[in-house]
């Protein structure tokens, strides 16, 4: 009888420890699902951010200078808030689903590279002094899940983000 009680108690302790470890692991899961985890922690100081529209026109090309950010096209100072909001949205965006890795599906998801006609995506290029470089394609909206289609320019896999990333339609929204 004592042996059965001891086995039951041991099993209960083991299950409790497993549950605690599962909770600890689950705290880390959201970080693993971030689309750009290195950007999340700010470990990379960005030096350029370029936004290219589906027609392959560079809407904004922000370059960090000593006292802020400047648009390389116009030489005008960039408002920090729209730029900061874009980077923050990308840093916090999580992948909620894998959609496809078949290029034949890109057009219907607006995931073709910019300038390739109907179904082209927006491109956001991020670069840091430390060598961090990401070319992100942001496509159409996923009406079923409420997010946005996304992929890295050099990767065939398309994912769905948990949000829609706000992009500037024109440079004037970003310029002082």
Q: What does the model show?
A:
Residues 4-30 have low confidence and may be disordered. Strands 3-2-1-5-6-7-8-4 form an eight-stranded antiparallel β-sheet, with no helix packed on it. It has two domains: 1-32; 37-173, no CATH class. The protein is an alpha+beta fold and 176 residues long. The N and C termini lie far apart (80 Å). 27% of the residues lie in helices and 30% in strands. It comes from Corallincola holothuriorum.
Helix content: 25-40%
Strand fraction? 25-35%
Total DSSP E strands: 8
User: How many DSSP helices?
Assistant: 3
Poorly predicted ranges: 4-30
Span of the ends, CA to CA: 80 Å
Strand order of the largest sheet: 3-2-1-5-6-7-8-4
Overall mean confidence score, pLDDT: 79
Radius of gyration: 22 Å
Q: Structural class, from secondary structure content?
A: alpha+beta
Q: Give the overall form.
A: globular
Give the quaternary arrangement of the chains. single chain
The largest β sheet comes out as:
8 strands, antiparallel
Counting structural domains, the number is 2
Q: Provide the succession of SSEs.
A: HHEEEHEEEEE
Protein name: DUF4340 domain-containing protein
Organism: Corallincola holothuriorum
């Amino acid at each position: 009888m004592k042996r059965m009680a001891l086995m039951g108690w041991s099993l209960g302790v083991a299950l409790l420890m497993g549950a605690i470890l599962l909770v600890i692991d689950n705290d880390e899961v959201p970080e693993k699902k971030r689309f750009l985890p290195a950007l999340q922690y700010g470990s990379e100081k960005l030096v350029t951010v370029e936004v290219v529209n589906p027609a392959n026109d560079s809407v904004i090309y922000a370059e960090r200078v000593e006292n802020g950010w400047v648009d390389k096209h116009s030489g005008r100072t960039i408002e920090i808030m729209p730029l900061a909001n874009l980077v923050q949205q990308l840093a916090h965006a999580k992948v909620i689903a894998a959609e496809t890795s078949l290029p034949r599906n890109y057009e219907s998801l607006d995931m073709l590279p910019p300038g390739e006609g109907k179904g082209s995506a927006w491109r956001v290029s991020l670069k840091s002094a430390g060598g961090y470089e990401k070319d992100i394609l942001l496509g159409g909206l996923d009406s079923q899940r409420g997010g946005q289609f996304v992929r890295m320019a050099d990767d065939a896999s398309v994912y769905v983000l948990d949000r829609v990333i706000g992009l500037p339609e024109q440079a004037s929204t970003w310029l002082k």
